[in-house]
Amino acid sequence: MASNWRRTLGNARSFVNNSMGGLRGGSNLASWVVAGTLAYYLWIKPDQDLKREQQAKAAIASHDDPFRYVETRKPVPDPQVTGLIHGNNNNKDKSFTADD
Predict the structure, then answer these.
(1) First vs last Cα of the chain: how many Å apart?
(2) Contact of 21 with 28, CB cutoff 8 Å
(3) Mean pLDDT over residues 72-90, rounded?
(4) Keywords for this entry (predicted)?
(5) Alpha carbons 41 and 39: distance in angstroms, whole number
(6) Residue 55: domain span
(7) Considering the domain boundaries, does residue 19 fall inside one?
(8) Number of domains in the chain
(9) Do residues 86 and 77 make contact, with C-beta atoms less than 8 angstroms apart?
(10) Does pTM surpass 0.70?
(11) Between 13 and 81, where is the model more confident?
């Protein structure tokens, strides 16, 4: 009984170690640091720089006309028009009058 859970734990540890490339100790940590640093400078930092640049351009553009309205959120669609609330069936070609 006791060896069964030990074997399971050992298999899980072996699987985790093998999935990380089979490296152990300091070399494993160093490889993760190198991979994380490369990922930061190749993907995360350029994306952050692009967002900052776009925000700076938007700030300069809004500085020209400070009273201009800038939409910052997407509009919420009307649930009856989109069909989420039943009873409309999106009949836009029919005109309803007060005598109907």
Answers:
(1) 80
(2) yes
(3) 68
(4) Membrane, Transmembrane, Transmembrane helix
(5) 6
(6) 33-62
(7) no
(8) 1
(9) no
(10) no
(11) 13
